[in-house]
Structure formats: C-alpha cells, structure tokens
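seq as requested:
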Amino acid sequence: MRPLIAHVVGARPNYMKMAPVHAALAKQGRVEQRLIHTGQHYDPRLKDVFFAELGLPQPDVELTVGSGSHAEQTARALVGLEHAFGELGPELVVVAGDVNSTLAGALAAAKLGILVCHVEAGLRSFDWSMPEEHNRRIADHLSSLLLTHSQQANENLANEGIDESRVRYVGNTMIDTLLAHAESARATREWERWNLMPRGYLLVTLHRPSLVDDEYLLKETMYWLGQVANELPVLFPVHPRTRARMQSDLHVPDAVQLIEPLPYRAFLALELEAAAVLTDSGGVQEETTALGIPCFTLRANTERPVTVSEGTNTLLGLEPSSIAAIPGLLAAPRRHRVPHLWDGRAGKRAANAIEAFVLGADAEANTTTGPVGRAP
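struct tokens:
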C-alpha cells in the first residue's frame, strides 16, 4: 500500500505552486495522490482554464465554498475538508500559499490528527491587517513539514521558534511552472492581440482589498494610470473582484485598456514582453523577478522581500500618485539576480522532501532528482 497524500487547492495562485509538486510525485510513483478543490475561486476564468493549461488533473473532490467573508469562506472550507479527509484518510495533507483554503486545509487536517505540509512556508509581511498574514503564520505552525523558497523564509521560521528539522529549503515551485510554459506563452504573441509593441507597455494587475475596496484609492489609481498612459500604453486585465468595485461613475481614462482576466499562458506572454508590470500580487512579484522584468508593487509592504533585495521589484507604497514615477524609474540602470533555487527544479526537490517524510530515510537516500536542503 502506497501512502496517500491529499493536496488542497482553492485559488488561482495555488495551481501554479502545486502543479510541479503533483507532477513530480506522479512521475516518481511512490505515493498515491488525491486533489481537492475547495471552490474558493469558482469563476471559470480563474479555475477551469488553469487546470487545462497547467496539467493538473481534474479534482478528485470539488467543494463549493464560493465567495463570502473570510470567516464564511474558511468555515465552509473547514466543514467540507473535514468530511473529505475523513473519507479519504490521507497520511499527509499538502497546502500551498496563504489563501483561506490554505488555512482551512491545515486546520482541518490538524484537528483530525493528520500531518500537514506547507508549500511556500515562511513568508511574512509583518502586517497583521492582511488576512493572508494570519493564514500563512497559522499554516506554518500547524505544519510538520515546511517547504521554503528563500533564505529569508528560513530566517522567519527560525525567529518564530520552528525547529529547523521540520524545514526543507526546496526553492520556488511556482517558477517551475513559469519556466515550463514561457516558450509556448511567447509563441502566442499575445501582445499583438492588443496592438502593443514588445517591451513597449505597462501591464497592470490589482485586486487586493486594501486598494480596490477603497473608493478614493481606486479612483486615484485610475487617474494616475491615465497619466502614465500618455507616455506608455497601459493594459489592465481586471480581476473579477476589482471589476465589482468599479462603480459606474468611476472615470477610466481612454488610454487605459481594461480587459477581462486572461488564461495563464496569455498573461505570461504579456509579462514576458512588458516594459514593466504594476501589481499588488505576490506571485507576480516573483514571476517578474525570475523573468527579469521591472515590477512596481502598489502596496505598503511585501511578504517577498527577496524580490526587492535580489530581484526586479520596487515597492511603491500604497500611494497611487507614485505610479507617475514609473517611466522615469524605468530609465534608471537596474541590477538584479534570480534568487537561489528558483531554477525550475523546485517541484522535484519538494517531491523528494515529501517522499522522505512519508516513506522514511530510504526515500531520501534513493532519490535521483537532486538534493533537498535543510534550512541553514
């Protein structure tokens, strides 16, 4: 009997992080896997197209958490996941990132006495106003196996008293997905669909409540995007949450192209050939760092400081007027490097760590997919 591992996903960022881990475990064939989708993201534009493009199998269990407050989403996911875990009987539950489904998966498993693995452990914004900060911290402290993507994440866990024997430094699994699809994404020439020139436009993605739920900040953001569009075309795929907050009286400058959310490869193609990206997304900060594309983050802080210290990311603060500085900042010389272990092989290292955890030392000794690092 091979041990059973249950993977919990629920929102768009989870798919890119979990797909390489699931694929590597499937290829190595030493464990059974089941995929559970909570339904936190249920819009087909944020769910179905990603399963189709990333090679994830259709979920074995699909819940219908849907939208609602953080408490409502988490509570519905907890109930559904408890039932699913009870039926499946996994030896290990794997969660990724910091969305409400991540918290629910870790908590439901822990309550049932099931061991938890957290992919992308150790990220910290140190901003307790962010729901994601609660989710990632609690998931880390409930986990028996913590897979990190940076030295800073290792240090955060050590500072919180988490034993280093529970931590494995495997790298960034989301970058595996990025690198695997970059060539096919560029081949789509998605920028031509929107009449844009390579390296000649600003790509925008904004969805966080701290920005889009504030009527004044959203209005100011659109104004300053209009100002930048006088120098640099602006393309803005609008997240459903952001679209819902755009009141009918919100002025959208004519020069700013608002479009529907895009499939993974289409958005990646636009990232690859953008002059820069303006975002409040954590994942986009990492993707642009790996690609060498200048990134400007419209937030007061980031849980991914490695994208600033080593990557291409500039933290603008939660101040829309700072958008006006982007053209000038692009003209300044920039230096960056891709962080350690963001090399396209993190999924294999994560799979090795998971196998070693559930199968014992023999799995680690017999692996042929590269070393798994302990946190220094």
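Residues 365-371 have pLDDT under 50 and may be disordered.
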